[in-house]
TrEMBL record:
Composition skew (Polar residues), residue ranges: 8-18
Transmembrane parts of this sequence: 47-74, 86-105, 147-168, 174-193, 263-284, 291-314, 320-337, 358-381, 393-414
Organism (species): Exophiala sideris
Region Disordered, annotated ranges: 1-24
Pfam families membership: Sugar_tr
Predominant location: membrane
Upper classification of the organism: Eukaryota, Fungi, Dikarya, Ascomycota, Pezizomycotina
Name under which the protein is recorded: Glycerophosphoinositol permease
Keyword Membrane in record: yes
Mode of membrane association: Multi-pass membrane protein
Superkingdom assignment: Eukaryota
InterPro entries, sorted: MFS_sugar_transport-like, MFS_trans_sf
Length: 457
């Protein structure tokens, strides 16, 4: 017996049966696009999630500029101490723990709470975009997630540039504190947004109240492994380039260049993420997220290898513009590919009842990749010794090789993803559970089941 017939049976057998419940059944079992909501009601949750991810991008990106200022203030006392490594370590460790903890919490309790923890806001965004018009869902998911993170990274380089210009390089102690303080403003808005945010309809329908762990692992282990590997490799290079842009650009700029120019160059390079993310948002709808990811990361690898070979010609102060453009293209292609689509794939290739945990684990592996990358890149530069050309070549060579490997993993391990994948995946997971003896009639939030008149177990 399917869910709709089960609900109708429960209603008709109830002693306090109310004809109005039939309307509730029709509403809550209709396709998501037919749920009676206005355009603003459908788009508001996506906007709220995007606001949180902008904050995440800024806070992660500004750490690089702050680290550069601290190194100039304290010199060897900072660069040779544990403080330099402790700052990014604390940030990433806290994020990884948050992904895992709140991933479980969002599935067991509420999607509204996922608004308060970085990348898990994408879970709510994915389910909210499922209520939008077919053919446009991927782009709106990307505009609310990856594009917002990229915008946060751009602002995280622009703000230090302006702050240093305003305070002067003799007042860096004030400058780095101001940069961090400004990062506290966007998260405060989330407290209000969380109050206004309502649970996505798909979560209300499919919340799981009992979790058969072994069945879930058996069903999703391979898909989770593939997505985690791709996310790990992407963040390994993307976050490392972004966070250390203000540091390794010193090798290109004149040694006497003012600090604000250093930050300005980082801002210019980070800005290339935006057109890449924007283009990838549309390509994801047109050719699908799997192929958008594959082509984006393949082209990124090709450009990276080309830059590796031509780095000796780029390593001149007079050619900074060419260096910025090529590096920007390299980073933009990363956004066209995995930047835009890895979160989308993680959210749409997992079913609603366990999406928070699936997404949280994959995103945590992405953060581990970023964490390792922030250590590996400086070691690659140090390994080159005093050879400035090799200092630039090594990071691009490693990243480009990983790009090609990511494309292979995606081609072999990822299925095709359509516009209705969230609903399709939910039905596929339900059938699997039912075939293995799990009673899916218990699905749904408490208020959803009360509206339908289905007895709570």
């Amino acid at each position: 017996m399917d869910d709709k017939r089960l609900q109708e049976t429960n209603l008709s057998s109830s002693s306090d049966y109310n004809p109005n419940h039939e309307r509730n059944v029709a509403v809550h079992t209709a396709p998501l696009t037919e749920v009676p909501k206005g355009r603003w009601e459908r788009t508001w949750p996506t906007i709220a999630c995007g606001a949180g991810l902008f904050s995440d991008g800024y806070l992660n990106g500004v750490i690089g500029s702050v680290s550069t200022m601290l190194a100039l203030i304290y010199g060897d006392e900072y660069t040779k101490s544990s403080a330099k490594s402790a700052i990014p370590s604390i940030a990433f460790a806290g994020t990884v723990v948050g992904h895992l903890f709140f991933g479980v919490l969002s599935d067991h309790w509420s999607r509204r709470n996922s608004l308060l923890i970085s990348t898990l806001r994408s879970v709510g965004a994915a389910e909210s975009t499922g209520e939008l018009k077919s053919g446009h869902r991927n782009r709106w998911f990307i505009f609310a997630t990856d594009f917002q993170i990229d915008l946060g990274f751009v602002v995280s380089a622009f703000v230090p540039m302006i702050v240093v210009l305003a305070t002067g390089e003799n007042h860096l102690r004030a400058a780095w504190r101001i940069c961090l303080a400004l990062g506290a403003i966007p998260p405060l808005s989330l407290l209000y947004l969380r109050i206004k945010l309502r649970e996505p309809e798909q979560f209300r329908r499919n919340k799981m109240n009992r979790f058969p762990i072994l069945l879930i692992v058996k069903f999703y282990w391979w898909r989770l492994t593939v997505i985690s590997i791709i996310w790990f490799l992407y963040n390994f290079s993307a976050y490392s380039f972004g966070i250390f842009a203000s540091t390794w650009l010193v090798f290109i700029l004149p040694t006497d260049a003012p600090l604000w120019k250093n930050f300005g160059m980082a801002c210019a390079i980070n800005s290339f993420w935006l057109p890449g993310s924007f283009l990838g948002a549309f390509l994801s709808d047109w050719i699908g997220p799997k192929w958008c990811l594959i082509w984006g990361v393949l082209l990124q690898g090709i450009v990276g290898f080309a830059m590796t070979g031509a780095y000796s010609q780029l390593d001149e102060p007079s050619r900074v513009a060419g260096f910025i453009i090529l590096t920007g293209v390299f980073m933009a292609l990363g956004e066209v590919g995995p930047g835009d689509n890895i979160g989308l794939l993680a959210s749409k290739l997992s079913s609603t009842p366990i999406r928070g945990q699936f997404y949280g684990i994959a995103a945590a592996w992405g953060k581990v990749g970023a964490f390792i990358g922030t250590y590996i890149f400086p070691l690659l530069i140090d390994d080159a010794g005093t050879d400035i050309v090799k200092q630039g070549q090594y990071p691009f060579w490693v990243s480009s090789s990983l790009c090609i490997f990511s494309a292979i993993v995606a081609f072999v391990g990822l299925p095709k993803v359509g516009q209705d994948m969230i609903e399709v995946e939910d039905e596929r997971f339900k059938r699997y559970l039912e075939e293995n003896g799990y009673d899916t009639s218990s699905f749904g939030t408490k208020d959803f089941r009360e509206e339908l008149g289905v007895a709570m177990n």
